[in-house]
Design brief:
This protein is an alpha+beta fold. Helix content is 19%, strand content 43%. It contains two helices and 27 strands. The strands form seven sheets. Strands 14, 16, 17, 19, 20, 21 and 24 form a seven-stranded mixed sheet that branches. Strands 5, 6, 9, 10 and 11 form a five-stranded antiparallel sheet that branches. The longest helix has 48 residues, at 296-343. Bound molecules: 2-acetamido-2-deoxy-beta-D-glucopyranose (NAG) (4 copies). One 2-acetamido-2-deoxy-beta-D-glucopyranose binds next to loops.
Amino acid sequence: MISILVLLIVEAGTQGADWFVTFENPDPCAVKGSSVEFRCSYSYKDGKTAGETFWYKGELKKGKWERVKLSDLPSYENRSEYVGDKQQNCSLVLHDLQRDDAVHYYFHFNTKRFGYRSKKSVYLSVTELRARVHPDRVRAGDHVTLECKTSCSLNRTVWYKDGRKVTKSTFQAQAEDAGKYSCVVEGQESVRSDPVTLDVYDPPMNVSIEVSYPSILTEDSSVNLTCSSSANPAVKHYTWFKRTASPNSRDSSLIQVASGQVLSVPAVEVSHTDLYHCQARNIVGETNSTEVVLTKHEGLNHASLHHVILIVGVGVAVLLVLSLVIIWAWLQTYLGKTSHQRRHKP
Ligand SMILES: *[C@@H]1O[C@H](CO)[C@@H](O)[C@H](O)[C@H]1NC(C)=O
Ligand SMILES: *[C@@H]1O[C@H](CO)[C@@H](O)[C@H](O)[C@H]1NC(C)=O
Ligand SMILES: *[C@@H]1O[C@H](CO)[C@@H](O)[C@H](O)[C@H]1NC(C)=O
Ligand SMILES: *[C@@H]1O[C@H](CO)[C@@H](O)[C@H](O)[C@H]1NC(C)=O
């Protein structure tokens, strides 16, 4: 048993002593679009410097193992860069990584007498950065977590929001945190994940009612109540409530009367015992307005104002006509006098 083990080690040792190729990291992983370096060293006893050196790409195609020189592949033109030498460094850099680059790579070198190809290979994995934000719709004050996913372990990831570095990946969202987030691998800032959006929503605020009375409150006219609010997203659901105070007791009955931003109350229903309020609701919350009470007076005030305008108008017209009549009468008598005088001049 022990002798077999010793024999194997010696064999491996002798094989390694003749020549070897070693890869620092035989299964690197890199982000699509970024660059990767296959750090590689080699040694041989056969001569002082190697002749040709090249890298192969190996993949299984239709059940057959195919190896192709990178220099023969147009898709690697300008993307592969041999940064090694003819003696011991055989490192290769691949730029602008594509999904298809996820295959095996081999190093090959020729000496005066023989060609050597690495027995082992570098297997490259190409991953994409997937940014996520949990949850993606929050209210101000809610906790948010940013998550950058990759299919293999990489360096630390860093976050950017609208072009600026984000220091924390977990925080309590405020209105100004809304925006587009993307992650990058530290040291490879040129490759960003697709952005993800965080929406920070506000419940309705400043909910108020505007009352518009018709100019004349007649039996068939109506008073309109309009509810408004500021919210994000904008309020789409408004509900109206009417509370009727009972004159005999302190009790009051509350009923839901309508929905929609505008409530029309027929003049005949206007009563000083009715209190109206609206409720504004969006996806994050609901808020009530204060109560308003309608009066028959408002409309009547407008009506009496009209009467005043009418009376003043008629008055002015009468005065105008009267003064014209007076002027005309005066002119008549004056002109009559002068003509009379002229006629009697000698
Ligand atoms: C490589 O770069 C050269 C010079 O810039 C260019 O002419 C050629 O089209 C490029 N090849 C590929 C495959 O992009
Ligand atoms: C609510 O109204 C107040 C006073 O008019 C104003 O200062 C504030 O900015 C308003 N808030 C919103 C969210 O519009
Ligand atoms: C109230 O709304 C109705 C329907 O939109 C409209 O016909 C009427 O003129 C409005 N009245 C007032 C006083 O704004
Ligand atoms: C708003 O008004 C409705 C109806 O009166 C009531 O049920 C609800 O509790 C009120 N909400 C708040 C926050 O006051």
